[in-house]
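FAQ: What does a ligand-bound record look like?

Like this one, built around 2-acetamido-2-deoxy-beta-D-glucopyranose:
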Amino acid sequence: MQSPVQKCMVALLLLGLCNARKGDPTNRSRNVLLIVADDGGFESGVYNNTVIKTPNLDALAQRSLIFRNAFTSVSSCSPSRASLLTGLPQHQNGMYGLHQDVHHFNSFDSVQSLPLLLNQAGIRTGIIGKKHVGPEAVYPFDFAYTEENSSVLQVGRNITRIKLLVRKFLQSVDEKPFFLYVAFHDPHRCGHSQPQYGAFCEKFGNGEPGMGWIPDWKPELYHPDQVQVPYFVQDTPAAREDLAAQYTTVGRMDQGLGLVLEELRHAGFHNSTLVIYTSDNGIPFPSGRTNLYWPGTAEPLLISSPEHPSRWGQVSSAYISLLDITPTILDWFSVPYPRYSLFGKRIVQLTGKSLLPALSLEPKWRTVFASQSLHEVTMHYPMRAVQHGSLHFIHNLQNRTSFPIDQDFYVSPTFQDLLNRTQAGQPTHWNKTLRSYYYRDRWELYDHSTDPTESHNVASDPRYAQALEELQRMLLKWQWETSDPWVCAPDGVLEDKPVPRCWPLHNEL
Ligand SMILES: *[C@@H]1O[C@H](CO)[C@@H](O)[C@H](O)[C@H]1NC(C)=O
Ligand SMILES: *[C@@H]1O[C@H](CO)[C@@H](O)[C@H](O)[C@H]1NC(C)=O
Ligand SMILES: *[C@@H]1O[C@H](CO)[C@@H](O)[C@H](O)[C@H]1NC(C)=O
Ligand SMILES: *[C@@H]1O[C@H](CO)[C@@H](O)[C@H](O)[C@H]1NC(C)=O
Ligand SMILES: *[C@@H]1O[C@H](CO)[C@@H](O)[C@H](O)[C@H]1NC(C)=O
Ligand SMILES: *[C@@H]1O[C@H](CO)[C@@H](O)[C@H](O)[C@H]1NC(C)=O
Ligand SMILES: *[C@@H]1O[C@H](CO)[C@@H](O)[C@H](O)[C@H]1NC(C)=O
Ligand SMILES: *[C@@H]1O[C@H](CO)[C@@H](O)[C@H](O)[C@H]1NC(C)=O
Ligand SMILES: [Ca+2]
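The answer part, i.e. the structure of the complex:
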């Protein structure tokens, strides 16, 4: 029997890590702290919202490279987290939709995830907050306080509890480097699960009767008149009130982030830890979460490296995918991606890239891909998309069916307001109609250089014919490279033998 330490040494030797660490004259240990917001967006000072108070995010940004063109590859919680932790899009890692309850999606058993690879390389791993991925064997963590064995409100929204758990993790680290993943449940909606705490759980722990108390939280309240209504949300009293509640919850997360970073500093890891802040999917408003439009996929992304101060506080325009996070963290730890296949002989390859070079020099990255299949199990609405510079192209594989609405968003004040106004024939003050939201063109192409709000679909404009063809080609190439089972949909059937190819259905699509 080998002791865990011996096993680790063997693993390290196999990966050539022991040599690398010995050969490194500074022998500095390198750690990673990954902080992920749940349904967080651009409600922060660093992203130029001038109303909301997010002093801790803003301070982190002063020690970070700030990305303005970062995108999730999928606008749904479990699929996004699985993609973040594997570097593989949802259609390749198997997490096609939500993990919990009846939805029951899981990644394939043989997927080699980031926590698994880091664990094998002798790096201590921890997760605090919302995990929402499985199976356990694919996503193992040495230290885990998640919804699987705690209350998600406590480990995901109670910032005092989170602070104490981070402290516990940091006190228990040995000489090994660590990867700590703090996954806030804030600022996710609450109306569907715990309406007593408000639409965004903005009252949870505020000290009022029945709300409990979070000792470290000083709630910031906002008046509905104050909020900045994004272009994709209707400007009505109901939506403004919804946004004001969201701001208060973002404020709790911001204060939590401050506490987490203070724990890191206090434990002496401030100068050896790569800190990454992002969110899993767009905000839960129309065109946001569950959509591949800009509001559904654009994410905040701050990367703070103590070793790369030259670009601190700068804003990068490079196009970044959250599929790049796994390659970035592997690069930081010098852990190679293994050679293996999931099905058949095809070797799994990461299509993302390490973002570390961007910390020194502005890169020319211009292309990101996206892929969504479901959210809830009933919400099959496959979409594939590519952004290349200012062009955003979306393929709605099954556009003849109505775009599905999830349970959580359905009961939200903003969506109820849209339904009520539409039913009553009142002005919605919305940029879309329910009809146009439910029924979409199969091909959507938006040119951000002239149309930043994605209001005009130019897919059938002859001036974009060549660009459209090129984008379709790029997208299909990526689908083949990432073994997308939907690659032939909606007008063909994929047959793997003798060589994978699409056979026509003649279904007039
Ligand atoms: C590198 O640091 C580790 C942990 O502090 C220590 O055990 C090891 O001896 C150091 N190696 C060298 C070559 O200094
Ligand atoms: C915020 O606005 C300023 C001034 O327009 C701009 O220079 C900066 O890049 C913006 N920041 C982000 C993150 O977009
Ligand atoms: C949750 O699991 C971790 C081990 O992963 C364990 O240390 C911790 O005590 C558990 N917490 C609860 C509340 O059961
Ligand atoms: C938050 O956690 C702290 C520390 O565990 C606890 O004292 C407090 O009661 C919790 N607050 C709520 C609202 O659950
Ligand atoms: C922090 O790390 C950087 C790069 O490794 C080093 O140059 C700097 O001296 C360190 N600062 C402190 C206060 O240790
Ligand atoms: C779906 O896309 C096709 C092709 O662009 C279009 O003709 C049709 O109107 C779209 N919508 C529906 C509901 O079929
Ligand atoms: C929508 O209408 C229902 C039924 O009349 C009402 O109960 C609800 O408060 C309304 N919600 C909004 C946000 O207008
Ligand atoms: C949506 O709103 C934006 C900003 O107000 C505007 O530029 C755009 O033209 C609007 N789109 C539609 C379809 O009305
Ligand atoms: Ca989410």
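Follow-up question: can I read anything off the structure? Yes, for example: The radius of gyration is 23 Å.
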